[in-house]
Amino acid sequence: MTDDGPRPGPGWYSRTEDGSVAWWDGSQWTAPAQPEHPGPPPAQAMQPVPGWYPTPDPAVERWWDGHRWTDDVRPAPARPHPPATGVDRATEVIRLERIRWAGVSWGSGPSGLSVAFGVVFVVMAMPIVLFALSARYWIMGVLMAVMAVTFLFGAAAFFVNAHFCRELERRRTTAPSPSSYR
After folding, report:
1. End-to-end Cα separation, the chain, in angstroms
2. Where do the DUF2510 domain residues begin and end (predicted)?
3. What is the distance between the alpha carbons of residues 173 and 182, in angstroms, rounded to a whole number?
4. Sequence spans of domains, the chain
5. From the CA atom positions of the chain, what is the Rg in Å?
6. H or E element, residue 165
7. Helix-strand-coil percent breakdown of the chain, rounded to 5?
8. Which residues pair with 75 in a beta bridge?
């Protein structure tokens, strides 16, 4: 990029001298040059999980199958527009780790563990319900019923969390469909 005339915005650009791409932050090259179509990481390095990853073209993502880059590509998800004021800066892609719903961050932990805890809470609520139904005094029945309902709400929360965990696991490992965008 030269100093005469307007400068392009931040992004990955081809470097004509060697056919690689590098990150231009709006004023200088900040990332080392990378090949246009990088090969898989070295065998001794830990392999990234299969999934959709950004390409030098910000409008497209490419599928990594866990061992190599495939020919499957798709349009990248829409990204929020930068604020009207402030300094432009490079951003990194952040994988979705939690889902915000009803004011709570859901999706922590493995889905099987959440299901197991939900089942444990339901099983723990059963004898409490029996004690509430057979209580000799009404106040004991009410207190036991409140305790049982608390356990059942806890179980419901674990089951909802398990649903969101499964959704996040599915999003991370969904392979491309045959009708992928090209």
Report:
1. 30
2. 50-81
3. 20
4. 1-36, 40-81, 101-171
5. 26
6. helix 138-173
7. 30, 20, 50
8. 60
Q: CA-to-CA distance for 27 and 4, rounded, in angstroms?
A: 12
For the stretch 51-89, pLDDT in tens is 888 888 888 888 888 888 888 888 888 766 656 655 555
Q: Which residues contact 56 (CB under 8 A, 6 or more apart)?
A: 12, 14, 21, 34, 36
Q: If you search the block for the tokens 């090209």, which residue do you land on? A: 182
For the entire predicted model, the pTM comes to 0.40
Task: Report the 10 Å Cβ neighbour count for 61.
Answer: 22
Q: Tokens 């929360």, residue?
A: 157
**Tell me: the pLDDT tens digits for 149-173?**
999 998 988 888 888 777 777 776 6
Q: How far apart are the C-alpha atoms of 102 and 97, rounded to whole Å?
A: 17
Query: Count of residues for the chain?
Result: 182
